[in-house]
Amino acid sequence: MNQRNVFDGSLTSDLDPSGMERTSLFAGGSLRQVFSEIVGKSEAMEAVLQTVGKIARSDAPVLIRGESGTGKELIAKALHRMSNRAGKHLVSLNCSAIPESLLEAELFGHVKGAFTGADKARQGYFEKAHGGTLFLDEIGDMPINLQAKLLRVLQEKQYVPIGSTEPRFADVRIITATNVDLDEAVGKQKFRSDLYYRLNVLPIVLPPLRERKGDVRLLLDHTLNVFNQTHSILNPCYFNGDVYQTLDRYNWPGNVRELINLIERLVVMSGGGEIDLSALPVEIKNSKAGATAKQVEAPYFFAETPGIAPDASVVELLPLEGLNLESYIEQLENTLIMQALERTGNNKNQAAKLLGLNRTTLVERIKKRKLVPLNAPSKEL
Ligand SMILES: Nc1ncnc2c1ncn2[C@@H]1O[C@H](COP(=O)(O)OP(=O)(O)OP(=O)(O)O)[C@@H](O)[C@H]1O
Ligand SMILES: [Mg+2]
Questions:
Q1: Is the separation of the CB atoms in 228 and 236 below 8 Å?
Q2: Domain limits, CATH 1.10.8.60, in the chain
Q3: Which one, out of 18, 64, 156, 245, has a CA that is 20 to 30 A from the CA of 90?
Q4: How many angstroms separate the alpha carbon of residue 61 from the centre of ligand 1?
Q5: Is residue 72 in contact with ligand 1, taking CB distance under 6 Å?
Q6: What is the residue-averaged pLDDT of the chain?
Q7: Is the CB of 74 under 6 A from ligand 1?
């Protein structure tokens, strides 16, 4: 079976299923080389990759958690590829995509005549993954009665196909993934706590992209490069500084998948050359404007209550999904500087007084952040 060689991306068909090859593969290359297709150098991502490196060769179950589009499936594939089971199949089953009535037969298979219409025996996912890895995606959506059956397989290391009485040995490494909060699901009795502990032996948590800001730029450049090669090789697209800034600050609720889809759309639609702010979807441009509008409220609140510490329970400034404090504060400062300049007809001395800054500091900030008030003389535009 052809497998992708993780060192240089070429296809190779001679991976040794004994594990010897895997040992040298991993020992011979840095984690960076092994994970060449996983983009990200943030501390959070480095920590995830270190964990993957440590646990890949164990047979214990792994539970990967993270919001949609954070790369859970990508990590599951990396785990399989670095494991001793890499020479066998990685079989994936999305538990939420299969109706409850069919899921059991899909997992364990059935013998001929097991039920009406079962005119021949059918392999289940456990059999297909024999010797390899079984990746159960969206495990949080597994129906509760099937959870009990899965738990039994994990405990006894055997399963019984529907209609059979003969147990079969389940030689699979189980990797599961979910974007739902399993602790909460356990609390609501939608997920069995005993299965949860059984699956969560080796946990991996993938942080959302907004918490690994350093990775956004790397992913933007990498993805742009990939789509330039497929869609726009003769006239490659590039982003101008404003686009980088806006995308850097954007919250990416759909994580890496959203970023990839956006870049593909931008490259295809632009046809080549510079991509500027006008090409970005309104919701992304507005998300920046929306953040600024919220921030404008803050000074008025503080101004009305001089000397009194604001009661955090009265004004809820912190969005549910959290924020990047440094860029929030910078935006807030920018808004106040712009308002001071506009109110004083762009008089730097008066604006500096209004802001309690000395003139030099104000001018430095205006230059550094390229702030231009609406009523600025045209030479400053
Ligand atoms: N760090 C990364 N570097 C490069 N590509 C990535 C990275 N993370 C995710 N991707 C890509 O983003 C897309 C979404 O990733 P993936 O399908 O693994 O996410 P997921 O967490 O399984 O999402 P879902 O919960 O919706 O199933 C894929 O095309 C994947 O290759
Ligand atoms: Mg997935």
A1: yes
A2: 210-280
A3: 156
A4: 20
A5: yes
A6: 81
A7: yes
CA–CA distance, 273 with 239 (Å, rounded to integer): 9
Which ligand has the nearest atom to the CA of 75? Answer: 1
* Cβ–ligand 1 contact at 259 (below 6 Å): no
Q: Tell me, which fold does domain 289-380 have in CATH?
A: Arc Repressor Mutant, subunit A (1.10.10)
Q: Which atom of ligand 1 is nearest to the CA of 74?
A: 18
pLDDT of 301 strictly over 90: no
Distance of CA 131 from the midpoint of ligand 2 (Å)? 23
Tell me the pLDDT band of 233, cut-offs 50, 70 and 90.
confident
Domain topology for 210-280: Helicase, Ruva Protein; domain 3 (1.10.8)
Write out pLDDT tens, residues 268-283: 999 899 999 999 999 9
Which atom number of ligand 1 is nearest to the Cα of residue 73?
18
CATH architecture of 3-207: 3-Layer(aba) Sandwich (3.40)
